[in-house]
Amino acid sequence: MPYERNDELPESVRGNLPQGAQTIYREAFNSAWKQYADPDKRRDDASREETAHRVAWAAVKRAYEKQGNRWVKKD
What we know:
Elements: H1 11-14, H2 19-35, H3 48-63, E1 64-67, E2 70-73
Antiparallel strand pairs: 1-2
């Protein structure tokens, strides 16, 4: 289920994040998708997809922060 392009991301991502953050999300998701293929590497019996989404959001939050209703790049 890796994403090739930002326009393939879930609406919850595309509708909230600017393009730069979407790219970070997509790349982190794809990397985590590969890294956590083995269920023994995941926490809390989470699915592979759920784990990849968690990793992707964490990657976005390292570079962007929410100000009001918008995500903006951290200084």
